Amino acid sequence: MDVIVGQVTALAEGASEATRKSILNALRDLSYKLESPDDTINRLWSGQVTIAVVRVGINLKIFEHLASSGKPLTMKELATLTNADQTLLARILRTLAGYGVIKENGINEFARTNISDTLSRPGDIAAIKHYFDICGPSYQELPAWLEKRGYKNPTDPNDTPYHSAFNTTQNLFEYMIEDGAAIENFNVYMTARRQNQKTWVHEYPMKDDIDLTNPNISPHGVLFVDVGGGVGHQAAEFRAAYPDLQGRVINQDIPTSIAQAETLPSAGIEHIVYDFNMPQPVKGAKYYYLRMVLHDWPDGKCITILQNQIGAMAEDSIILVDDMVVPNHGVPWQVAQFDIAMMAAGSAMERTEAQWDGLYEAVGLRVLRRVVYTPGVCEAVTALVRK
Ligand SMILES: C[S@@+](CC[C@H](N)C(=O)[O-])C[C@H]1O[C@@H](n2cnc3c(N)ncnc32)[C@H](O)[C@@H]1O
């Protein structure tokens, strides 16, 4: 068995991202093939328990302690570090070890793994908090909610599983803002998402839109507006990739996110409060960039958001929509899962190419080009101009 594990590991190590993902899928399919019905049921309900005990582990900083200690830790050491009751801790640790999140080295001794290391990183901790605390109750609500509404595809952003789960009339962002910690956590997650990986900035052929040999390309003064940009991490990536290009780089979001952005280092970027339900106040920018904004909303609301940008466009302005483009078949599970998350939180969706193009057609935009920059999870930047 060790030989096979060694061979598969070696195969995955030098492989492209696409090959690595197909190896993971093949291993999953193999593991499913070996399951008894009992195994299948246990695996399915372990999904909820895994994220619940991981959430406890995050609260107790178990993964951070294991990552920073540089050596395995005994139960006693972990009890001292976490201040948790030893009997309780033993139950949590054995579950985490059973799921392979941490490693049980011997009796009452635990060690880090690549999984627990991931769970010690601030951006990944923020992701788990968001998916468990905010999305979790909405998924729990989803089956009954869909049944009650006769299995119609959800299109009302004010009536979603999330609204029922949280018994609120506020949308998800309003809810997280009122909570305070939730929106701050969400922004940490969004900033860290795909950090240190190749992003759209490196893949999009900017040279086809602007003369990169002539830095003075922005006669209108504004080069790039990140609409709904959170704390401005994509605006920062853009600025870092094109430090010499003339023109303002602006990040826009709701007041809480802009206040958070202003506490972070962001050289060369301006932060402006802007509600995308209102006309865009920054006129004639070269680019209006929206990453993972439109996937939060159903078509009607996307049309409003796009129209609000179109009103500000100059002749040579381009809208860049950075979102997943769902293939017509063989949809990676990571993409399908995002779609369900958008459904539960906002009656929104991840869209196919035809669904996106229908939206652009409806507001009088023409697709100039579409650049898929992470084939494994179907993320693409679509450049749009006025017809
Ligand atoms: C899924 S996040 C994407 C953030 C960022 N573009 C990124 O890719 O990391 C959606 C963003 O839309 C912002 N947002 C929500 N409602 C908004 C509104 N009415 N006006 C402007 N921004 C809004 C949120 O605060 C959040 O930053």
UniProtKB/TrEMBL annotation:
Pfam families, sorted: Dimerisation (PF08100), Methyltransf_2 (PF00891)
Output one GO BP term.
methylation
Q: What is this protein called?
A: O-methyltransferase
> GO molecular function: any one?
protein dimerization activity
- Annotated ranges, domain O-methyltransferase dimerisation: 45-119
Q: Which residues form the active site?
A: 295 (proton acceptor)
What keywords tag this UniProt record? Methyltransferase, S-adenosyl-L-methionine, Transferase
Q: Which residues form the O-methyltransferase C-terminal domain?
A: 158-364
For this protein, the record's PROSITE patterns field holds:
SAM_OMT_II (PS51683)
The uppermost taxa in this organism's lineage are: Eukaryota, Fungi, Dikarya, Ascomycota, Pezizomycotina
- Which stretches are transmembrane? none
